Amino acid sequence: MKLVKGLALAVLPLAVSMAWAADDVSKTNTPTTTYLQGGGSTLAGVEMYQSTDPNAPPMTKAEFDAGRQVYFDRCAGCHGVLRKGATGKPLLPKAMQALGTESLKVFIHYGTPGGMPGFGAANELSENEVGLMARYIQQTPPT
């Protein structure tokens, strides 16, 4: 009998603490805490490019890589590999962000009177590629 009482006294604090802990969890599992803990994302399976500039528009890694390739194929000859300018004007991220994505799309599509060709108007870039480049040149250039 002493053994049963001893076991009951030994197990009682454990049972009480488990019940108390379970009660605390239910009190903290509110919609707010569930929201703050995070949830599913529509981009969960997409690898994103992590720009060092928080003002740059978001791009997936695949979009960034495609933009880099188009830039080196079509733009680097005039604007330079690091976008600091050569025969064409520099394309520095802060200046490009100040223009905004929509304005950049117009420049890339139609070109400029100063000599930049209209890549979209000449069907050298698709509308998707024009939009891609408008976002790409707002990113910090890769080194």
Would you kindly provide a written description of the structure presented here, covering whatever features stand out?
The structure is a single chain. With 143 residues, this protein is mainly alpha-helical. The chain is built from six helices and no strands. It folds into two domains: 2-36; 61-136, Cytochrome Bc1 Complex, Chain D, domain 2 (Orthogonal Bundle), CATH 1.10.760. Helix 3 (61-79) crosses helix 6 (127-136) and helix 5 packs across helix 6 (127-136). The mean pLDDT is 81.
Characteristic key phrases:
mainly alpha, Cytochrome Bc1 Complex, Chain D, domain 2, 2 domains, 55% helix, rod-shaped
Fourth-tier CATH superfamily name of the largest domain: Cytochrome c-like domain
Share of residues in strands: under 5%
CATH topology of the largest domain: Cytochrome Bc1 Complex, Chain D, domain 2
Number of beta strands: 0
Overall outline: rod-shaped
Order of helices and strands: HHHHHH
Low-confidence stretches: none
Number of helices: 6
Termini separation comes to 79 Å
* Gyration radius over CA: 29 Å
Helix percent reads 55-70%
User: What's the mean pLDDT score?
Assistant: 81
Main pleated sheet: none
Judged by helices, strands and strand pairing, the structural class is mainly alpha
Domain unit count: 2
Topology summary:
Layout: H1 2-28, H2 31-36, H3 61-79, H4 93-99, H5 101-110, H6 127-136
Gist?
The chain is mainly α.
